[in-house]
Amino acid sequence: MSTLVFGHRNPDTDAICSAIAYADLLRRTTRPDAVAACCGPPNQRTEFVLRRAGLPAPKLVMDVRPQVEDVCRRTLVTASFGDVFHEAYERMRQGDLRAIPVINSDRHVVGVLSILTMMELFFTDAADTTKARAVCTSLQKICDVLGGSFRNAIDPDRADELLVMVGSMSAEGFTERMQKYPAERLIVVCGDRPSIQLPAIDARVRAIVITGGFPLASEVVEIAKAKGVSVISSPFDTVNTTLRIKSSQFIDPVVDRDVITVPGKLSVTEARELVERSPQPVFPVVGDDDRLIGMAFKTDLISPPRPHLVLVDHNELGQAVNGADEAEIVEVLDHHRLGGGLKSTQPIRFVNEPVGSTCTLVARQFRAAGIEPEPAIALCMASGIIADTLSLRSPTTTDVDRDSLAWLKTLCHEDLDEYARDFFQTGSALRSRTPAEVIREDCKEFTEHGVRFSISQIEETGFDLFWERKNELREAVEAFAATQGLEFSALLVTDVVSNGSLLLLSKESDDFEDINYPRLDRALYQLADVVSRKKQLLPLICRLLAK
Fold this sequence. Notes:
Number of strands: 23
Oligomer: single chain
CATH superfamily of the largest domain: inorganic pyrophosphatase (n-terminal core)
Strand content: 15-25%
Strand order of the largest sheet: 3-2-1-15-16-17
Structural class: alpha/beta
CATH topology of the largest domain: inorganic pyrophosphatase (n-terminal core)
Number of domains: 4
C-alpha cells in the first residue's frame, strides 16, 4: 500500500499544494511510494494553481480504511469444473495455498476447493471394493497426468467412472477377479506381461495402461484396435502409475458450492464480521459485476496492513481524512496549534512551527535536502504561501515565509506579483458557489472547553457580494451547525485588499458579549485587521469560551 500524503478535510490551497509538493520530495528521498491525496475536491483557486502549474489534482480519497480489494491477493490461482486433482494440486503447491476458488468460464465464482476436501478423492470406503477402485475421469486426463502417450485411443475425452485394476497377480487369478467387474468400466494397469494384457483386451476392457515405458508388441496393439480397447503407455512404475491415475479424478464431486464471496468494495471491518465465524478456507473477492478479482484468507482480513499516512497542514484527527484513527500516521508537517487525538505506536517525525504556510515548511525541507524542485512544484509551493499569508500581508507571515517565497521565485517561470493578483481574482466563492458550498469550502471543526464548533473562511476582493448574499449565507451557516450537531458555526469573510474580515455566526450567546468588535447586524461583526483563522480568530473564540 502507498504512503498517502493528506491535507485536512475541505482542503484549501495550502493543504493541497503542500501535499503535492511534500509527496514529490518524499518520492525523491525516503518514500518512493508517496502519493499526494485529498479528502475533498480542490476549490476554484486551487484548480487555478494546478492549471497554471500543469499538475494533476491529488488522488481523491474520502476514507482510508482499507477495503477488501486493497488487502486481498490479486495473483489468482483458480480451478474449474472438469479440472482434475493433479492439475489443481499443482497450482496450489506452486502458490503455497491450501484452498482456491472455483470459477466458470465467465469468471463467476461457483465454489471453493481445498486440499482437505480433495483428499476425499483418495480416501474412499475401503470396505466397498468397487468404490475404492473408482475414478471419475477421462482417458485423456489420465494420459496427461501420466505424461504418457496413446498407442490406441477410443473416445479419450469421454468422462467415465472407471474402475482401476492392477494386474500384478497370476493370469488365472487376474482373469477370475476381472470377471467380477463390468469390463467396459475397467482400466487395467500392468507391466510387460502379455498374460495379463491379452485377457484384458479379449474381455474388451475400457483401457490398459502399460507401465515402465515398456513397448507393446505391434500385434497386441492391433488386437486392441480390433477389440476397441484403448492403450496408454506410462513412463512410471506400477505403484506411481496407479497413484497418478487416482490423481486424475475430476474435482467436481469435492467442490464446496455453498460459499461466501466478499465484495471488493466492502470495508475490511465489515468483511471481518462476515468471515470470522466461517469455516471456509478461502474467500473469493468479487467486483461489482460479481466476477472474481482476488482472494482473501482470514489472516488477510483479521490482521490487514494499516495504511501509512503523512499529515500536512493539520495535526488533529477531527480534521483528518475518515479512517485516519485506524491508519499508521508516520509523519506530520504543520503550522497550526497542537490538537487532540493524535497517537502513534512508535516515534514519528513531527514538524510543527509557527510560520504562515505549510508550503513554507515543505520548501525548507527541499532546501535542507539540497534538492531543487521542478518549476511546477516550486509554483505549487509558492501558491500555498501566497494563499495562506495573503501575499505576505497576513499577521501570520514570518521571515521564514518571506525567505522561502523569495527562493521559490527564482525557480518559477511566473511573475509571482502578477500571479498573486490573478490568484485572488480567481474563484470567488461568493460569486460561484451555493451558500452551503461556501460554508463547506474551507471549513474546520474544533472542540474547546467541551464546545464543538466550526470556522469556515473565504477570501474575497471586497465585501459587495457578501452584502448581496448575507441573508442566504446566514441561513446556510445556521443549517450547517444544525446538521453537523455543532454548538455554533462561524463564517469568516476576509477582504484581501483591505486586510479585514466580517464574522457571521450561526447564533450568538452570552459567551460573545465581550467580543469587542463592532456588531453590524444580528450575529454579524466587523473584524478590522483580522485575517487569520488560526492566529487571530480561533484564539479570540477560545478566550470567549473560557470566560
